Amino acid sequence: MSVSVLSPTRFLGSISGLLQVASLLALVLLLLKAAQLYLLRQWLLKAVREFPSPPSHWLFGHNQEFQTDQELQQFQKWVEKFPCACPRWLWGSRVSLMVYDPDYMKVVLGRSDPKNHGSYRFLAPWIGYGLLLLNGQTWFQHRKMLTPAFHYDILKPYVVLMADSVRVMLDKWEELISQDSHLEISEHISLMTLDTIMKCAFSQKGSLQTDSKSQSYIQAIKDVKTLFISRVRNFFYQNNIIYWLTPDGRWNQRACQLAHQHTDRVIKLRKAHLQEEEELEKVRRKRNLDFLDILLFARMKNGSSLSDKDLRAEVDTFMFEGHDTTASGISWILYALATHPEHQQRCRKEIQSLLGDGASITWDHLDQMPYTTMCIKEALRLYPPVPAVGRELSKPITFPDGRSLPKGIYVSLNFYALHHNPKVWPNPEVFDPSRFAPGSDSHSHAFLPFSGGSRINVSVYAPRK
Question: Any stretches that span the bilayer, and where are they (predicted)?
Fold first, then answer.
């Protein structure tokens, strides 16, 4: 009688054979992927051939030129050299046409192309798929549902709440200035705009400007924005699995958790208040609901309410966009006026003559300060809070000069480059409020501090009647 036993030699031989097969398969897959990327790059080169650009690296694109703090200056060099638009290679197989001409802007913003999925997807773990990241019919439904929150009848009484938040901030500044002659204003302004949006859109009572939890939220937002920029620029961070294993990825997760804790607390608190009969009756009597109440009472076409995931996405999106871009705009406006004291003094005199002694600003005052408005617009031209947005072409496009792009190409609408384009704004680096004097003639798409078209940033650029 004989017994068959698998010898170590045969076992190792079978393992070796499996490794060889696996290695061969991996090599074949690698070659196929390389061929796919090569063909994609050739297609992209052909797609943007009508638009010249500086030489780029076959793998890292133009990223080498944009690694320093001179990125905005680099944009300006391209604007002066390449008319209307220029391809920016992000990686060897990814390119975006950077647009900075008003006629080009008008064509793109007049379409309904979806957001560029490439970079915007990095924001999803933070703000979810709310109005900023949604596309298509779902975006349209959410936008239609939330449009009443931006009616001017709702915005009018908010001016008083905004003035109260500003007064709290100024009182803090007076105390801090008495202790030190220098003051970093950006964080204070962020807290003030967060306080304002919490009162106006989320029915918050009292001031948040001395609340440590609010300060933690502001810091979390700063961290997430910084990490977003570094991720966009890093080739190896494009893959989610790799990124979440890195220190930056784990830092991003912690910052997102802090931001979500803040918004979850806001939603939970409002839901609890609406359980009270008196508060619920007060809301029902309102002619127009606040932003959060619209979300909580919303019913979709099929009769279902927003899911908890969709609800938090819209709150995360609006809380960020409603305070951060506004804070950025205000900070740069104050910077521009501080560096141009002659214009600052004219604004001060205009406001003093309008308000008199100690009067608080009202909605009706907003149309009675033409020079201050001109200065605000000129500051937003120089320092747009939304420097660029991205689109992915859902169909071919032809620009006014006859150049065209096929479906599937990414387009970056660079508002900073547009605002600093010498062909659009003569002497673009000069602070000149007269550009926006009443009766001045400019292209409808030459000034886009908060984007334009159907996806204009309504949270900071709501229309006035």
Answer: 12-32
Q: What tokens were used for 324?
A: 């951060």
Provide, rounded to the nearest whole percent, the portion of the chain with pLDDT above 70. Answer: 93
pLDDT band at 303 (very low <50, low <70, confident <90, very high): low
Does the pLDDT at position 456 exceed 80? no
Task: Say how many residues make up the chain.
Answer: 465
Among the listed residues 120, 72, 135, 123, the one whose alpha carbon sits nearest the alpha carbon of residue 98: 72
The pLDDT of residue 135: 87
The pairing of beta strand 94-99 with beta strand 410-414? parallel
Instruction: Name which of 164-168, 291-295, 374-378, 434-438 the model is least confident about.
Output: 291-295
The domains located in the chain, with CATH, are: 73-455 (1.10.630.10)
